[in-house]
Amino acid sequence: EAQVTQNPRYLITVTGKKLTVTCSQNMNHEYMSWYRQDPGLGLRQIYYSMNVEVTDKGDVPEGYKVSRKEKRNFPLILESPSPNQTSLYFCASSYTGTSGSYEQYFGPGTRLTVT
Amino acid sequence: QKEVEQNSGPLSVPEGAIASLNCTYSDRVSQSFFWYRQYSGKSPELIMSIYSNGDKEDGRFTAQLNKASQYVSLLIRDSQPSDSATYLCAVTVLRGGKLIFGQGTELSVKP
After folding, report:
1. A61: contact with B, CB 8 A cutoff
2. Which of these, A38, A48, A58, B39, is most buried using a 10 Å CB contact count?
């Protein structure tokens, strides 16, 4: 089954304790991205990756790191989480459609709470 | 001005009616346009994509794009209670690099 998976799905942690949220896709997509979703602010892009070893900042990259060492995996790293990073996080991946554009498919989400 | 704007709603329509969802965007070089449906607590699900001016139909859904007016819409015919969700408009500028979402329009279909 074609899918984007994220782990963990739920995480409660404390300020300053490093954490990693994993994202994996089995569709051989070149493009992967991370978003956060907050009430009243909608979905905002954190980082994206056009291919292995190619990453770039989205709209809200502060406090986050990413790496893309393999095509299928795109982990999101919070080196020192803070309460303002409490949010719902989505990973997405995409292929190139017939018009040369990207249709992104989302993972199930990770609900993170930082206390 | 927000880059992608949608009416937040809620938009309420009776079952069987046509629901009309609207979206405007600010960047004239925007290339690709998408509609996602998101149920509460779930991930966004792609329902329509449109890249050129005009209409695109898929079942009960029709997307309409007018690049001159920087406007994209989604029509849902014969609305069903199961269509009740938040609908997100998304626009890309660079080739897949940046996808910008609107705030979403909450749709409620009343039986």
Report:
1. no
2. A48
